[in-house]
Each structure stands twice: as C-alpha cells, then as structure tokens.
Amino acid sequence: MCLALLDGRAWTAGELAAHAGVAPSTASEHLRRLIDGGLLVDRRQGRHRYVQLADPTVAHLIEDLAARTESRQTPARGLRTATANAALRRGRTCYDHLAGRLGVAVTDAMTSTGLLDQTGGFALTTTGLGWLTDTLALSPEDLRSGKRPLARGCLDWTERRHHLGGLAGAKVSERFLANAWVERIGSGRAVRLTRNGKAALRDLLGIDDID
After folding, report:
1. Mean pLDDT within 138-143
2. Is residue 4 within 8 Å of residue 19, measured between CB atoms?
3. Do 35 and 42 touch, CB atoms closer than 8 A?
4. Is the pTM above the cut of 0.85?
5. CA angle at residue 173 from 171 to 174, to 5 degrees?
6. What are the structural domains, with CATH classification, of the chain?
C-alpha cells in the first residue's frame, strides 16, 4: 500500500485494500497505524475518506526501505502483471521525481556532465543551477528549497542505485512532463520517454538510449 501511495495521490482504504489484495478491515487497521505513526495523513472530502503520504520525506523513506529489503514477492503471473512491472522498472515517478532506469540514467548523466556532484552527497553545481534556470527555464523562486533539500539522493528500489530526489528532482520531473518529454502510462506511476523526450535527453544530457 505504501508503494502505491508513492504516486503522490490520495487513495481510499478500499482502493488500497483491492490493490494489496487484502480485506478492507485489514487495510483500515494498517492504515490507522501508519496515520498514528505520522507516515500518512487522513484527508476527508464529503463522505469520502482518503489517505496519502504525509510529505516527501516519507516517500524517500519508503523508497529507501524498499531498496534495502530483500524482495519476497512471487514472480508476476500473467502478461498484464509482468508488463506493468517491467514498465515500472523502466521509468516511474517516486512521489514527485523520476525513478527507475530513467531516473537513474538522468541522474548519472547530470553527474557526468558536471551538473550534479555526488562526492560526499548530492549537490547541484553552479553549472547545474544554471542548467535548471537557463535550459529548463526554471525561475530562481522555483528552486528555493525552504525546509526541503534542494538535491537529495534517493535509493532506487528496483535499480539499487541513487536517483535525484529533493526539490530539484521534483522540478526536473515536472518540467519533463510539461514539455511532453515524458508521459504517464495509464493512471499509475509508470512513465515513458516520448520521441521528443529521447531527442531532448540526447541533446541536453548526451543520453543515447534508455532500455
């Protein structure tokens, strides 16, 4: 259920129960504990009750835990499930930033081209800040981090390597979607590069191909 909530949306307990394949009462009990623990927040709209992640730091925690925990999932059964899993591994959103092979490839390219410094942590270089404002047309106000780190490494649970999180990661994802370089697949977290996106990543970051 927590992995489903990484899409940043608010879900009902019934939707999460169906997604996890558990009884509604079981889902409600687990969700109550997660709310009490401060990981989720309760949203009410009319007669409907929704839950969602409390903030981006919770998304980071869940992704990090998923990457560090040995998977005990059974192999996907059926073509539809296998296809959906493969799509998530190729590219997805982790709360509000890019993850999967796509997110890791963008992060690696930003590092190799001097936009991102991963020595001792994650930090945008002066060149990287200029790239965000000049090339991606972000304003300085967009990059005022407040309490949220501007750049943060997020351990990818499928790739077991870091992708770019934090405010910069969110803004990069937002701009890629707005420019139609990346598009969502259905209503879930999976995303894919468009033809224009492949050309943009090749021109801007030297990424030739992402499987």
Report:
1. 89
2. yes
3. yes
4. no
5. 60
6. 2-54 (1.10.10.10), 79-205 (no CATH)
